[in-house]
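[STRUCTURE TOKENS]
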Amino acid sequence: MTKKWLVSLLSFCFIFAVAHAADAHVTVHPSESTTNAYEKYTVRVPVEKDNNTTEVTLQVPKKVSLVSVLPMNDWDYTLKKNKDGDISSVIWRAKKGGIGPNEFIEFSFIAANPSEPGKISWKALQKYADGSVVEWVGPQNAEEPASVTTIAKGDQAAPHGDHHATKDESAAENNSDSDTPSNDSDTSVNWLPIVLASVAILLSLISLFRKKTS
């Protein structure tokens, strides 16, 4: 009985340790997206040491176009470009002390996904206040793996940005429909001065007729 209890305890500790290690990884969410889509990605950075994280570098995978970065109050960011002028990496640097042990932070950005399905790997470097750097660049079974997003086949007929155009067209149709009652109301308002003038003339004639009869 004691042996079985010990084995169960060790198994539980192992599972807990593995789960905790997985939680400590730098990850990019969502883990699944589709081709030809503008996706909002979030980089989750937990602190796994008794030291503050002060800098995070994320390499932008090939065939992924970084569009915009969400600014953070206590962090600055720098965009690095390759020889073709495309953004190849983004670096977040803490303005003050960074994030401490048992804390985490999330950085968000928008990127255009590749037009072909497959897996994209997000390699990241996590720098601490003591100068040490954890390189999250390995395969998925490594101790320091890079986060991976699976790109599934989406609407191939809709290239980047077409879904925005569809929304704009819908809005234009709604505006067009709303213009019709507006024009009708303008027409009814234009009749108002004529009606008022007619009433004024009628009252004047009645008043003049009463004077003559008196």
Observations:
- Confidence is low (pLDDT under 50) at residues 5-22, 157-189.
- DSSP finds two helices and twelve strands in the chain.
- Residues 34 and 151 are 5 Å apart (CA to CA).
